[in-house]
Amino acid sequence: MFEGLSGRLGEVLQRLTRRGALSEGDVAAAMREVRVALLEADVALPVVKGFIERVSEKAVGQAVLRSVSPGQMVIKLVHDELLAMLGGSSAELNLAAAPPVAVLMVGLQGSGKTTTTAKLAKRLTERDNKRVLMASLDTRRPAAMEQLATLGQQSGVATLPIVAGQAPVDIAKRALQAARLQGYDVVLLDTAGRQHVDQGLMAEVADVKAAAQPFETLLVADALTGQDAVNLATHFHERVGLTGIVLTRLDGDGRGGAALSMRAMTDLPIKLIGVGERLDALEPFHPDRIAGRILGMGDVVSLVERAAETIEKDDAERLAKKVQKGQFDLQDLLGQLRQIKKMGGLEGLMGMLPGVQQLKDKMADAKLDPRVLKRQEAIILSMTPAERRDPRVIHASRKRRIAAGSCTEVHEVNKLLKQHQQMQTMMKRVQKLGKTGMLRQGIAGLMGR
């Protein structure tokens, strides 16, 4: 996400850091480029104008122009204004009420509202130990209720039984009554959407809200719609009264205009973001981390959190013991490849590391296939258990068989085997050096120099 904006801002601000003293002309020229970068990222014009005015006013001050590192000071100012534009601090879901707490999900058709409802239910169930009941109020879209029921089965979350012919308001009342009787903590109400904002949609949502009295009313908006997402939030907020926004498909939005504009234009917090199709691909929106990612500073905190969620403790301990003994076979490598996929793939991980934008650009220039992990996994799966335990038995005929079984080429099999051999060699050096040797010889000892 934000790749285009991050690249443009990175180029502009990097040029500033190469200079010593900065003149007002240098700052003005840089701000003109920042303005263009934000507009190209589909950020709303009023937001861009306010952003540039505030940064420029502070950047031409004596504290910046005469500071030890004026370029770095300007970067800090840009970071601070981005952070303010995104809301400053995280806004958590407010469920501090007597159960069952109603959460109303609203938005246009196709924004990912039903899937987001299921994602949120799964998150509340698994992370917050809440008993969640989902209810579909969409009586207009064919199979909408069945879709939510299917997602409920996949996520292990209860859904309200379907009763044909009921109006949305009646379904909402029935859901709350069922939740009270059965001891649920949270009720997620998935309302109907339209292809565009219309009076009928607004009236229906307003009636449901009046009946359910939700503690949270969340607008689910597609980040890829850019400026339209801002207009959508404004319309819904005026008619219904929103408490927050959930942005979907943010992982596919290289521009980021919707995320950067919505808080500034509506004063509504972005509470959650969808970052993938899986039911666990829903994350809290952290303005400080997003601002850091936009400026190439990375998001190591989110990386660590994602690792903690996906890595099995027993598997990690078992692998650590094998590494300490200098053992690392192809089955272990397969586990690591799958772990990387769970955490969002190479591109997803690199986006969270600081200072890797240039490396990502080089990878793109080298035309590295992002599907390489899938091919490597297929290669290992085409091997026998004995071959995975001891790759030394894999000779020419076996390589041809493995390549054919994985729909790859022999040279790709060779490349994977070489990669594994290099990893195994390094791990044996770790085992040989031990803790004392590692401290004494450092990286040079590890690399065998």
Attribute tags:
about 450 residues; about 10% strand; Rossmann fold; 3 domains; eight-stranded mixed sheet; 434 Repressor (Amino-terminal Domain); Four Helix Bundle (Hemerythrin (Met), subunit A); flat; alpha/beta
CATH architectural arrangement of the largest domain:
3-Layer(aba) Sandwich
Secondary-structure element series: HHHHHEHEHEHEHEHEHEEHHHHHHHHHH
What is the number of beta strands? 8
Walk across the major sheet and give the strand order: 3-2-4-1-5-6-7-8
Main sheet, how many strands, which sense, barrel?
A: 8 strands, mixed
Bin the strand percentage: 5-15%
Shape: flat
Instruction: Provide the residue-averaged pLDDT.
Output: 76
Could you tell me the radius of gyration in angstroms? 26 Å
CATH fold annotation of the largest domain: Rossmann fold
Helix content: 55-70%
Write the SSE topology.
Blueprint (H helix, E strand, L loop, with lengths): L2 H16 L5 H17 L4 H15 L2 H4 L4 H16 L15 E6 L6 H16 L3 E5 L7 H12 L2 E2 L8 H15 L3 E5 L8 H14 L3 E7 L4 H13 L4 E5 L8 H10 L3 E5 L7 E3 L2 H8 L5 H11 L2 H12 L5 H13 L2 H6 L6 H9 L6 H10 L3 H5 L6 H11 L3 H37 L3
Parallel strand pairs: 1-4, 1-5, 2-3, 2-4, 5-6, 6-7
Antiparallel strand pairs: 7-8
Helix pairs in contact: 1-2, 1-5, 2-3, 3-5, 5-12, 6-7, 8-9, 10-11, 15-18, 18-20, 20-21
